[in-house]
UniProtKB/TrEMBL annotation:
It comes from Zarconia navalis LEGE 11467. This is Carotenoid oxygenase family protein. The keyword Kinase does not apply. GO terms for molecular function: carotenoid dioxygenase activity; metal ion binding. It comes from the Bacteria. GO terms for biological process: carotene catabolic process. Fe cation binds at H189, H244, H312, H492.
Amino acid sequence: MSTQNACQTATDRTLSTENRFYDRQDWQGGYRSLPDEYDYSIDDIDGEIPSELEGTLFRNGPGLLEVGDRPVHHPFDGDGMVCAIAFKDGRAHFKNRFVRTEGYIAEQKANKMLYRGVFGTQKSGGWWANAFDLKLKNIANTNVIYWGEKLLALGEAAEPHRLDPATLETIGKDDLNGLLQPGDAFSAHPRIDPCCEMDGGAPCLVNFSVKAGISSTITIYEFNPAGDLLRQHSHAIPGFAFLHDMAITPNYCIFFQNPVRFNPLPFVFGLRGAAECVAFDPSGTTKVVLIPRTPGNREVQILEAPSSFVFHHANAWEEEDKIYVDSIAYDSFPTVEPDADFRELDFDRVPAGQLWRLELSAGSKTVEHRVLESRCCEFPSLHPQNVGRNYRYVYIGAARAETGNAPLQGVLKLDLHSGERQLYSFAPRGFGSEPLFVPRPGGTAEDDGWVLVMVYDAAHDRSDIVILDAGNIDGEPVARLHLKHHVPYGLHGSFTSECFAKSNGL
């Protein structure tokens, strides 16, 4: 399984008889560890950084893809490394640091793997050395957010780690003012409601945790801008739930319960990682779980939708008596193979993500769906003021080719009203990641701003921070900031208008 799924002009060179727009060795170059930590002003720039762009882009992802001389089985098992790119007065500064989790510190000291990974990484010594060892490393490698004056590195199913936003030094695990107990999960996919009706129009952060089993329990948390807990409620739903993300509207938290089966025995007996024990059930249906954000008023509803597997949602909103949800959907779960090398991924054999829209009618319990974008795509982003509301523009990492699966090599802007598409490509030797929309201060149009994306440039073996004009994605980049090194393919990030840079300026 890979989230590096696949953009450029008609003059692009064809690199194979299969009409690919990339070279496999180029793509593999982005899957190398970055063991070093840097702190420097970015001086090598094509174009100009807009003077209005002020704040900090935080990115998280696996920075180490081996421990000692032993590689991880899947990049999702790699230790979290947070990057910060601070912008001010047309200048930029880069820094990166590993999250000093308990597991990272212990393994670096021992220079060998001491923990199993969710996605199949095993300690040396065979199954007997891994059997009945169910303790997993909190790798804090999935997302990073700044909220309530705290910078939090988030993992998939564990407590967050608090970092110093100016230095990225790890302060330690954060229990959110006593809310979380040791080992409690806190999702890596919070959503920010820009104008919460329950709080007089103030913004709030909404997140969740899930305890999966024969039945699964979902807990919803909502926080005010100071980081104080506003609301918390838990709900049990039948069946095993593999939940990576959620969507919100002013009234609902929305989850897609993917049609999968989980057999824990190979994990318990040391034969496989936990994610390798998840199997897609093609005969099942996707369950859409609607949890009211004001649970005293309504009950949880579960609707059946066409079978698919969803990691990420773009957005959701309510309109009259309908709820609409836009998501990246796969035909099946992209299985983690026990003996596979993720660097040798055969894109033709794994499903490609597409942008789907589901129209939900809670009253009649009906679900209709249509494909909004059939091109291979992942990591949707939109104007933050439109989260949970009807919206027009979405920005997605996309493949260069219109059909088939391939690495992400560009940014696709989709006008959901007119259907117009704009595509900026980094092909043939550039490989992208999650694009992030940043609004222009004082802007009024929904696409008035910039799209920031980190790109691995195989031609120079380095990564760039590319600034695109969100209103004209297929035009020339506003600026390309060339780093002094590569950054391994990351996962998620966020932008804050606070500029965290050195006290003496950039």
